[in-house]
Hints:
This protein is mainly α. It has a single domain (2-491), classed as Amino acid/polyamine transporter I (Up-down Bundle), CATH 1.20.1740. 72% of the residues lie in helices and 4% in strands. It has helices spanning 2-38, 42-45, 47-52, 61-64, 75-86, 89-102, 106-130, 144-151, 159-196, 200-203, 219-236, 240-268, 273-285, 299-314, 322-325, 333-361, 378-390, 392-425, 430-445, 451-473, 475-490, 504-516; strands at residues 133-134, 140-141, 206-209, 216-218, 288-291, 294-298. The strands form 3 sheets. Strands 1-2 form a two-stranded antiparallel sheet. It has a two-stranded antiparallel sheet with strand order 3-4. A two-stranded antiparallel ribbon has the order 5-6. A hairpin with a 6-residue loop joins strand 3 (206-209) and strand 4 (216-218). Helix 1 (2-38) packs parallel to helix 20 (451-473) and helix 5 (75-86) packs across helix 18 (392-425). It is globular.
Amino acid sequence: MDNFWQQLSSMNDAVNTFVWVTIGLVLLLGTGVLMTILTKFFQVTHIAHWMKNTIGSIFHKKVLGHTQEKASISQFQALCTALAATVGVGNIAGTATAIVSGGPGAIFWMWVAAFFGMMTNYAENVLGIYYRRKDAHGEWAGGAMYYLRDGLGAKKGCRGIGKFLGALFSVFCVLASFGIGNLSQVNTIVTNVTSVFRVDALSNITLYTDAATGVSVNLYMLVVGLVIMAIAALVIIGGIKRIAAVTEKIVPFMVVLYILGAVAIVVIHFTNILPALGSIFRFAFGMKAVAGGAAGIMVKEVITWGFKRGVFSNEAGLGSSVMVHSASNVKEPVRQGMWGIFEVFADTIVICTLTALVVLTSGLVDLDTGYMISTSNKVVLVSEAFSNVFGFTGAAFVAIAVFLFAFSTVLGWSYYGSRAWQYLFGERSAMIYKVVFVAAIVLGALLTTSLAWDISDTFNGLMMIPNLIGVLALSQTVMKITRNYVARKIKNQKGVELMLSFDEEIQKEQLEKMRQDGEL
């Protein structure tokens, strides 16, 4: 059995290297750069506009208020559900892992990935709204599989490749939903809860011990897993409306709570802020970086870890969050695209940067050499930084934050996987996926290997490839929609015909709704 896991790990490493190092980073960065150029650096030149129309409009009734349409959820609910899937363990464990494996310089490349990822996510959401359609239940259905099939597939000679890539993306999305969206998240929750909030009566009852790792699984882990499964089932079975209703309450609370805690740690160690920032830039461009006690990590590895953990954190380029953004009640593709920009900004530029500063200013890393002083890794590294200041309260705070972050990620990814499953097997089979997804939560609680995380990385990369091919192929469409919006909304040009949907019937329907709502 041990030999099987070793072979599986070796195969995954080979695929992971090909996906991320050989083609993935070039494709990811290239798409972000292209969309930035085609939209004339929209994330910079129109920063005031997209800030005003995202976080600046958060209390506007059309944004915050619940829609009565069965076909959609509010823009704020769409953002919260998307952030629920992206603001997760990647912001804590992912950032810490980037520092441990790639050195402080990896954070710089997370920023680079986020800067260009803003426009990749923007493009994905614009295409998601433009190519969405309504399913048999009257709900909006959108995502990379639809703009691959109906967008790329509409180009001359590309009908077959569009359908194939749409199906391929959906298969990888379903698999990724069980990896990064379920098993890995649940395992992290269980590990943290059982280690911080100990219950010896349950922890002392060992269920089995993994011969390869020597790690034991106890009854406490199983009980926590069953509780998570029961709570998740109540939400997930209810569909997007119930998921959105829960995430709009959890996400703002958990984000604000974590930011306050992280800011407190950084302020306490304020004398280390400039040295920490200096180490990020120095090790990003130096010929060698030192991390985890292993000298000689080359710049390519620093960049790779930065980009992998950047995408792991904000999901820009995966095409995953498009599915929930497409369910929004918004009519203008660019308006939801701007929420995509804000999503990446909040997730990586704000939250991941704070996590990095928590680790780097807390004395856990030698800022002169990049050498890891602490022997902790992943979530435990951040927990150590908090507990050094606040003791048990700090460790408990991180455990609670991880629980909220990871659980909300499970909810968000359950919707992504469900949509991909329905695309492949039809809407009537959706309940099969939901039941299997919920049941798999218990398996995640009993994992003893990090292989689930490694495989999750691979499926993330595999999802990314067909999605980015679609974004690149339809980049001119994104550019035209953006120019159309800028001409009407920013330059106030008259007589410009709106671009709302590729489908003439949906275009007419949305125009009529805009007239009724006084938006024209």
